[in-house]
Amino acid sequence: MKILFHICCSNCAVYPVKLTRAEGHDFTGFWYNPNIHPPEEYQLRLDSLKKLSDDWRINMLYLDEYRPEDFFDMLSIKSPLPVAMLRSNGNPAPLFKRRELFPPLSKGDEGGFSSMTPTFPERCKSCYSLRLERTAATASKEGFDAFSTTLLISPYQDFDQISITGKLLAEKYKISFYLKDFRPHFRESKCLAKELSLYRQRYCGCIFSKLEREQAIKERELKKFHG
Question: Which of 220, 4, 223, 13 is nearest to 132 (CA)?
Fold first, then answer.
């Protein structure tokens, strides 16, 4: 079976590639991740995937133009910076270096965006739909038998919601959704990714997940400080 796999990052791709090939399927990767911020992080993840695809001879389709506006449009909010700045690689200042645009988080308030964007996990559901719909549409157009996603390996993602989204899109585009629980292999995948010297990110990808991680770190530090 020819399967087009949405790939969120190289680390999560390792075991889906191995297992899918072991089952005798034809694996082709698909890169479309407009949620990732800032552009430097986007490039690090893309370059790491290209390294893996070269080393393992993975067939790839890349929609690698950096389009963060797709992510903000999906959330039905106005992006916090002009598109040119969102796509910047240093001139003007990258998105995450403009800290004045994103005040400190409070519970339920992603940097002052709570009135404009869905909170976790609602925004994640929308993000799954955004990326998987492009995958399903491309798979259907290019003659694949099925589509899937490497997000299915992560215990930090909503497996049930990804499954629901995939099945709905399969009906819409008249193509199969290859559903497999790769999560038992997550630790092995991380170890192998380290052996392969792949870039390992520290947050899911979007601006909100980055800010949430930073806030969680600050709260832990404060807790330690106050005993």
Answer: 4
pTM: 0.82
The structural domains of the chain, ordered by start, are: 2-81+120-200 (3.40.50)
Residue 6 bridge partners (DSSP): 30, 149
C-alpha distances in Å from residue 30, one per residue of 1, 11, 166: 16, 14, 15
> Could you report the per-residue pLDDT of 62-79, keeping only the tens digit for each?
998 899 889 888 877 544
Measured at the CA of 188, the angle between CA 187 and CA 192, to 5 degrees, comes to 120
Are the CB atoms for 48 and 199 separated by under 8 Å? yes
Burial of 20 (0-12, 13-18, 19+ CB in 10 A): buried
